[in-house]
């Protein structure tokens, strides 16, 4: 491999920002380029028949820009192996498909990302996988389900989308282990800065790097992080066999984003906390959902489990109902009306009419007066001013 910092940085006590900036980032041996180049090549010259140079043969199998990002992410996560993909869902698909066989079962929370639910319910279930849904924040429901049948995986998302429900990763992992079930945590909302699922007992971590890791709303990507070498081999085999790899440019954007992740996530969290507290006292608001607020049902667990902040996502129910939510979301000037999250710019959306429209009428249905905010890293006073003028527009 071209990069060799992985081993050395894994085993040090270097801080997360240092790892983010240096792990996997050895200057290019040919030119000394400080930044890993975007290796836009599909194939690599062999030194003799079957003699690959540093293990590189074909970019679906392995590409140096992707390797650099994978090593960087593994080091930031504190995991042994990271593998990146063309999207978060591609990462989730490969993790599941590399291990599940028809007849196996998966248990998920009732508030998982809609795309994850769709992949499981519409692709894996017809393929022969059993799927059950529980309220994952209720340990009694989770243990009753685990006792009733064997599940290969228990899928956890915390904070979840859009109500930012909090699941205790350590307690849930300990419970699942009693039943021989592996816990997978979708850590997209918290990012590897605020939450460390592998250290808390999870078996695997997945990301949509489209969100905080890429961080600039300019790339779609995903990743899986595991400690188990045999699992790494199975995922790599499926990654190469099915082929949903990120382009070298995608991997480069993710790599660039990851270097500033800590700074950004701390600012996202600080801005979000300020805005959540401001919203909680506002007359146009019925209820604020933010795990940093003491009023949030998961606050105590979040305060233990998340480190350095509570993330950049806030959901808020408006007192004016569904119509107020729509008018509010259409009235902001700095917040952009758009799906997705985790970029430097603030976004606003109405889940019931946008991201969560497909779950209307199911157990995943969300309140119609709910507005979801992805708090960016702009000046917080400007963001509050923008929300204040949107409240005024709703009242008019
Ligand atoms: C966006 C998202 C995904 C899916 O990722 P894509 O990159 O859009 O495929 C999965 N989980 C969560 C929590 C997400 O927010």
UniProtKB/TrEMBL annotation:
GO cellular component assignments: cytoplasm
Modified residues (N6-(pyridoxal phosphate)lysine): 211
Sorted UniProt keywords: Pyridoxal phosphate
Leader sequence residues: none
Swiss-Prot/TrEMBL catalytic activity: O-succinyl-L-homoserine + L-cysteine = L,L-cystathionine + succinate + H(+)
EC number: 2.5.1.48
Primary enzyme class: transferase
Pfam families: Cys_Met_Meta_PP
Alphabetized InterPro entries for the sequence: Cys/Met-Metab_PyrdxlP-dep_enz (IPR000277), PyrdxlP-dep_Trfase (IPR015424), PyrdxlP-dep_Trfase_major (IPR015421), PyrdxlP-dep_Trfase_small (IPR015422)
Cofactor: pyridoxal 5'-phosphate
GO MF annotation terms: cystathionine gamma-lyase activity; cystathionine gamma-synthase activity; pyridoxal phosphate binding
Cross-referenced Gene3D superfamilies: Aspartate Aminotransferase, domain 1, Type I PLP-dependent aspartate aminotransferase-like (Major domain)
One Gene Ontology term from the biological process aspect of the record: transsulfuration
Keyword Electron transport: no
UniProt record similarity statement: Belongs to the trans-sulfuration enzymes family.
NCBIfam families membership: PRK07811.1 (NF005871)
Protein known as: Cystathionine gamma-synthase
Species name: Bifidobacterium pseudolongum PV8-2
